[in-house]
Design brief:
The protein is an alpha/beta fold. About 40% of the residues lie in helices and about 15% in strands.
């Protein structure tokens, strides 16, 4: 007997526990290990293999067409990283769903910033002028270098795609297709050359499209009220002849445009008054603006006469600086918002002015050079002055000398600036090539409503822009781009741009690239035997290039419609399923793509458009080098790893501007660590689980495991819904709460006892493992689109394989319905109440660990709660509540004080929970208190359940 006792005491029961086992590292160590995983993907061609598999089992295509990032630099900023990660999340999710979802990256290569960078570098090093071909050669080298650098950084983000086949807008095949699209638009009559005021950047010395203009709020202008003396009244305005010195007062915020004044515009339906000023005499202004005008000049002008605007038409004023006639005309664009209701009209400096001037056959004068310098046509005193500075000041000075200046003041308003040079633009009438948007605008507006806009407000933004657009200025005065293949007859100066010419040039470009336009003379570029209607065969070629937005705006045709690898199962390219870019692209790529596609095919190039906001620092400020608040994605990756950056993208509501900073990265690192530890717990407790042999059928699972699967199904549906709606921040919240609360905070906590102490092959332990295997499978699915490196890491250490896939990226996202017993959820309220009671006992130092307690549950005639609790067996309830014993009292039993030595007591309207001391002694193996310790003849020091587990009997 003594020998048996000593043998029992010598047994180390720790060795009989099923302690967790896994080689899965606790730390992700992203900066070091992520590149290894990416190398594995690359060397094993995982992207290509998965894509091929999806193509074979094609349930449909989902093409996210990549908007090309600009190659003005080899670096990427945090906004670019956000964009690429968002795209990658969508593509990976759709691929997991089973869609054929190819991702072809692209790069935007032409444009002014690149040409300017090359030109500036040349000026620094050499005073010799670069030829167009030299500029283009150096620009090509510049963008190819930046493409390699950007590609490397995109890959480091974990973005997978066809990088080898990535398109660039300088590839000859791309340029040729762009020209063919252009030729079709020419053939349809959408392209024309005309004299119109355009947005002009004097710094860049080129015309700009609306997409290249940004408005600066609270821009300070010098505004002036100027008197134009009336020299002749129309027949319907004869009643004003009694006012000998009558002057019409105009108001403008651009005094430099006054040399171009050709008329004064009134509204036919407004009432105008002749108001007498002691200082300035008789002045004509709109009646409803007189009070405002009086405040400006600090004088109460007295109304002497009233007249309708239409009665003043064809009256003549004199320009105060030049003495030339400036007739009064009528226009609907005149408003009563501010000013005088008498609008200074300079046809060479404004679209509305130009439009109304055509009706009245006014001369178009724009005495301003490409550099924004006033010419001799503005007069000797103004010639040579820059419009926005000295020009403005000198015009005001001259008006003062002439006695025509009534008031000068600073005026703060929204003013257009070039989005590249950040300098104020000018409106300047020049000969340009235009696309007539108004010819197909109605169709474009209808197509906008056929597109799904995410968020929905995107529809309103682009709709209002297209609705008000009449033309698209597509010519630029540069050399780094695709040439406009037009020619000018030297005999009659007629311009020649037609489909025959464009198609001919496109064939040449497809072989030799667009350099050929500068390499060859005119005769070599034109089709053989081509001549003008006047009979001339000598031509001069156009020197302008296409707007860079025409380059990227043609990708639906130049890329999607030309690449069979992107086609759907109906062998069609565009429309793509999605375009995804920043919200600024409503005026940029989204719009240029829409316009070219509708012009060519009568339909939008996309089925859905997702837009995201801009990235701000964690204090909500715009990032700038001067503030030192720029977040470099490369530094973030080097410190935390790409998955943390990707987790940030998923955690933010991209529909508005997003914040980022060190504090957020630290918080995200904690969330990532918890997700990783959750996966590690699952892996470590499945070390001996065989998916084929050990799985427990649903009906045989413990109820708590069925409950866990029910919760899992809810999460799976919620996550799928979040992904399908592209609301990734909801996915993040679900995932975070699931790992931290549902698993770590509850389920894993209550099943540890079964995992560690139950028999290794017992049904109770296998029930938990079956459930955990389902949880792990779910985690793999939901982590892969957002945290692919972590998901791949988990896949590597899986003790069993779901299938024979080489990579986690080959898995399929399946919306299952495993957990059917929703009624089991009712026990949660009872558990919460019990936890409060246990906490009271702990606080009062009656117990230390909850296993020192025994619970008594009274149900106060609550049948539903009682029946739910009776579904669970006694042992299961003890594990759920993590106590040593639990007593479910009959439904009609009522708790009476004094029945027990209560440690604590708590109740609500449905249940009363009483905590007492656990019966028996503490088992050294499972740490539960038990009255049957010593009853097993072989294992005298442990409880009966543990003895059976050690012997493998349960």
């Amino acid at each position: 007997m003594q020998e048996n006792k000593e043998l029992q005491e010598a047994i180390d029961y720790k060795d009989t526990l099923n302690l967790p086992r896994t080689d899965f590292p606790m730390k992700g160590d992203g900066p070091r290990r992520e590149p290894e995983i990416q190398k594995f993907w690359s060397e094993n061609k995982i992207y290509e293999k998965v894509l091929e598999d999806r193509k074979k089992n094609n349930i449909g295509r989902f093409l996210l067409h990549d908007g090309p990032p600009y190659l003005s630099s080899g670096n990427i900023h945090i906004g670019t990283a956000l964009n690429k990660i968002l795209k990658d999340i969508v593509v990976k999710y759709k691929t997991l769903q089973g869609y054929y979802s190819p991702y072809l990256p692209g790069f935007d290569c032409h444009g002014l910033p690149i040409e300017s960078a090359i030109s500036k570098d040349k000026k620094k090093n050499d005073s010799e002028q670069l030829s167009p071909l030299d500029i283009r050669k150096q620009c090509t080298e510049f963008v190819m270098k930046n493409r390699r650098l950007q590609e490397e950084k995109f890959k480091r983000l974990g973005v997978l795609g066809d990088w080898t086949g990535a398109y660039m807008t300088i590839y000859p095949k791309f340029e040729a297709q762009q020209l063919k699209l252009f030729g079709e638009m020419v053939n349809k009559g959408y392209i024309y050359r005309g004299l119109k005021p355009v947005y002009w950047c004097a710094t860049c010395q080129t015309a700009l499209a609306e997409a290249e203009v940004e408005y600066v709020e609270n821009y300070k202008s010098l505004s002036v009220y100027v008197a134009f003396p009336v020299s002749k009244l129309s027949s319907s305005a004869k009643k004003l002849e009694k006012f000998n010195d009558l002057k019409v007062v105009i108001w403008t915020t651009t005094p430099w445009t006054l040399p171009g004044n050709m008329a004064i515009c009134l509204h036919k339906d407004f009432t105008y008054v002749v108001a007498h000023s002691k200082t300035f005499g008789y002045l004509l202004v709109a009646e409803k603006l007189l009070s405002q005008f009086n405040n400006k000049i600090s004088e109460e002008c007295i109304i002497s006469e009233k007249i309708n605007g239409k009665d003043l038409e064809h009256s003549i004023c004199l320009h105060p600086l030049y003495g030339r006639e400036s007739p009064i005309i009528l226009g609907e664009h005149v408003t009563l918002d501010t000013g005088t209701g008498c609008v200074h009209t300079a046809p060479g400096h404004g679209l509305e002015d130009f439009g109304i001037s055509q009706k009245y056959k006014l001369k178009v004068l724009s005495p301003v050079t490409a550099k924004g310098i006033l010419t001799d046509d503005a007069g000797a005193e103004l010639s040579g002055l820059y419009v926005h500075k000295a020009g403005n000041q000198k015009v005001i000075e001259l008006l003062q000398k002439k006695g025509a200046l009534i008031k000068e003041e600073e005026y703060f308003h929204s003013y257009p600036h070039c989005w590249r040079s950040k300098t104020p633009i000018i409106f300047r009438a020049t000969e340009q090539w235009f696309c007539s948007v108004e010819k197909f605008r109605e169709k474009a507006l209808k197509e906008i409503d056929n597109v799904k806009w995410i968020p929905e407000i995107g529809r309103n933004r682009i709709y209002s822009m297209v609705e008000s657009r009449t033309d698209w200025c597509i010519s630029r005065q540069r050399v780094w781009g695709v040439p406009i293949p037009a020619f000018y007859c030297k005999g009659c100066n007629k311009d020649h741009l037609n489909k025959q010419i464009v198609d001919h040039i496109a064939k040449l470009v497809e072989v030799s690239g667009t350099d050929i336009w500068w390499e060859k003379d005119t005769e070599s570029l034109l089709p053989a035997g081509y001549k003008c209607q006047c009979g001339s065969t000598t031509f001069q070629k156009e020197t302008d290039i296409m707007d860079v937005w025409f380059d990227s705006g043609s990708t639906h045709y130049s890329v999607v419609d030309q690449s069979k690898d992107l086609f759907d199962k109906n062998n069609q390219g565009s429309p793509s399923e999605m375009y995804l870019e920043g919200s600024d692209q409503h005026r940029g790529w989204f719009q240029s793509s829409l316009l070219t596609s509708v012009a060519l095919k009568g339909k939008a190039p996309y089925k859905s458009v997702l837009t995201h906001g801009f990235v701000l620092d964690e204090n909500g400020r715009k990032m700038s080098k001067s503030l030192g608040n720029v977040v470099d994605p490369e530094k973030v990756i080097n410190e935390y790893g790409a998955d943390i950056l990707r987790l940030w993208v998923a955690s933010t509501d991209y529909s508005s501007d997003m914040k980022i900073g060190q504090t957020m990265f630290k918080q995200l690192s904690e969330v990532y660590r918890n997700i990783r530890n959750t996966a590690r717990f699952a892996l470590s407790n499945l070390f001996d689980f065989d998916l084929k042999k050990d799985i427990v059928e649903y009906q045989d699972l413990w109820n708590i495991d069925k409950y866990a699967l029910f919760c899992l199904d809810e999460k799976r549906l919620a996550v799928s819904d979040a992904f399908n709606k592209y609301e990734f921040y909801k996915y993040y919240q679900i995932l975070q709460n699931f790992c931290a609360l549902d698993l770590s905070g509850f389920y894993f906590d209550v099943v540890k006892d079964r995992l560690y102490t139950a028999g290794k092959k017992s049904k109770s332990r296998r029930s938990v493992q079956t459930t955990i295997s389902q949880i792990l499978n779910f985690l793999l699915e939901v982590l892969t689109p957002v945290l692919p490196h972590l998901a791949e890491d988990i896949w590597r250490y899986m003790p069993y394989k779901i299938n024979s896939a080489t990579s986690v990226l080959a898995l399929r996202w399946e919306v299952k319905n495993i957990g059917k017993d929703s009624h089991l959820v009712n026990f949660i309220n009872i558990r919460d109440l019990a936890n409060k009671a246990l906490e009271i006992a702990r606080t009062d130092k009656k117990i230390g660990k909850s296993l020192e307690a025994k619970l008594h549950l009274y149900f106060n005639n609550d049948i539903q709660q009682y029946q739910t609790m009776k579904l669970f067996n006694k042992t299961e309830l003890e594990t759920i509540f993590i106590v040593s014993q639990i007593v479910i009292h009959d439904l009609n039993d009522v708790y009476k004080k004094g029945n027990y030595d209560e440690y604590s007591l708590i109740s609500d309207e449905n249940c009363t929970v009483v905590v007492t001391k656990a019966d028996g002694e503490k088992c050294p193996r499972c740490w539960k208190y038990s009255i049957d310790i010593g009853k097993d003849h072989k294992h005298k020091t442990i409880c009966l359940p543990c003895a059976k587990a050690v012997e493998g009997l349960d």
